[in-house]
Amino acid sequence: MWELWTLLLLTVAYFLWPKIRRPGAKYPRSLPALPLVGSLPFLPRHGHLHANLFKLQEKYGPIFSFRLGTKNTVIVGQHQLAREVLIKKGKEFSGRPYVVTLDILSNNQKGIAFADYSPHWQLHRKLVQATFALFKDGNQRLEKIICQEVSSLCDFLATQNGKSMDLDFPVFLAVTNIICMVCFNSSYKYGDHEVKIIHDYNKGILDTLGRDELVDIFPWLMIFPSKTLGLMKKCVNIRNELLNKILQKYKEKFSSNSITNLLDILIQAKLNSSNSSSGPDQDSKLLSDKYILATVGDIFGAGVETTTSVMKWTVAFLLHNPQLKKKIQEEIDQNVGLRHTPTISDRNRLVLLEATIREVLRIRPVAPLLIPHKATSDSSIGEFAIDKGTRVIINLWALHHNEKEWLQPDQFMPERFLDPTGSQLISPTLSYLPFGAGPRSCVGESLARQELFLSMAWMLQRFDLEVPEDGQLPSLEGDPKVVFLIKPFKVKIKVRQAWREAQAESSA
Length: 508
Ligand code: HEM
Ligand SMILES: *[C@@H]1O[C@H](CO)[C@@H](O)[C@H](O)[C@H]1NC(C)=O
What we know:
The chain is of the alpha+beta class.
């Protein structure tokens, strides 16, 4: 019996072992690997994956590899090598590997974030960038849209004066509305049923999209029904139905004469490509409803939970650092005052606030391992050969916590982004890429940075954010899902005395 098992294992191993590698080439050092399960038994299973991989660098160096199932994965944890992957050889590493759960979310790798290097990824990424260009100035200026939503958020918070609350839903609503304006010029009000549905399915998707799901490592486990996978499919279906309803309704009022948002751009691009008599109408297929929905879904997915999470992290760090909060408020009082609300042009004056946001993005990156990349051709990183199809994971956590690059990397110190006089923003090291870089970099970076700055500036101008009466400080440990979330916490909302006085004065 024992011999039979060995024979079976060896046979399977023979078929699953990687194809002959390039002879004479030097590959990154690998963790031990067994047939079938690969390196799984040698990977720490407790704690945060990004931190565990960072720890493995002590033994294996800044670039190493392991095998999961039949796939080779390379981990890069140092900024020179990371920049080589993302920027210098950006094109060779801009693929995305197949991941079962992400494949369900993206309806077979459609959309942008989880799409492999392909014509539809290029087309849709370009169209999203064209959409943001529409919001550069004029009546539709992004800043105006953000301020409108942040203003509603603050008005709501004012009704909660003296209470302790979880900021999650109000912030989620504001950020969702900004994305809705960009996607289809609409927004939700408090109590709208639909926004509750979005909030619920988002939570379902985040909860089930764990990186540690076994099906992601062993795709053939798909044949076994998994409870989480079922829940996830359910949430994705609810999302698809809701977005589809919006799309179908929107098509009726679409007009080529007024192209003002993402849906307009996508629908118009489809019309253009079906009408063009010259050339293959390749693009038309890549702009079918399914593709359009996947891209809109992506912008919601990538645009809402990320920004919402960073805002909550920022508030949490301010609760832990009340002196810093006070200093930021003084900065706002001196540079903006209390008669005007902050604008984007205040950004180069509110440097301590800006440094604080940068520090939050360093110490708790939204995507500590970015989104997995894949080599689109045989290539190399540093002195090491990388075969086509290899998954390449950039450990941003390692870049942001490297002791050679950062003084006391585990300490929250916004001053590290300021010059010694505290009046100029600086970049202390190149080991910092919160939005990635190169062909796969975040398309929403500019929007996100404006949202973070304006919402924090408006909130701190008007409110004191304080620890609730029970003295419970937020846990800063975090909960790494597709987004590095913070565990739920409460904050006490108090309208600032100085704000009240300024309001009374200006209305007198
Ligand atoms: C603080 C907020 C945000 C952070 C820190 C962030 C960060 C990132 C990171 C690290 C990546 C992956 C880069 C890579 O794989 O190499 C990414 C990708 C992406 N982000 Fe963001 N993001 C944020 C907000 C947004 C917003 C508001 C949007 C859209 C409105 C957005 C849209 C996207 C998209 C579409 C991708 C996929 C790009 C591609 O694969 O070609 N993100 N983001
Ligand atoms: C957006 O919608 C509002 C009202 O729903 C409308 O007044 C406005 O003209 C629309 N904006 C654009 C640019 O279509």
